[in-house]
Specification:
Layout (H helix, E strand, L loop, with lengths): L9 H5 L4 H8 L3 H5 L5 E4 L20 H15 L5 E4 L5 H20 L2
Length: 114
Amino acid sequence: MLLCDRGTVDGAAYWPDGTAEFFAQAGTTLDAELARYDAVLHFETAAVGGSSIEGGNRWRTENDDDAIALDRRLRALWSGHPGFHLVPHHSSFLHKITIGLSILESVVAARRSR
């Protein structure tokens, strides 16, 4: 089992020339990339709940509004996967991670029972 923090589809959400151009330049399609994954867990950004994401993380370049827009683009792309799971924003990060771990545990259990 391989667990990734990001996936190949993510680049399309950042691509300045649009999703179709991203996949054309990459020589692939959204469907082909989605097929590479058994399941997708999308953790909704904390910015959706009004919790600021601006906290000194040098890798985070977007403000809260940009983070929400990016989250929507990522969700729209990944939600076409048949094993898509949304982990909604929650004020408690521990609660959010617990939900994610529960989903992951069920995905792993289903995979083992095949």
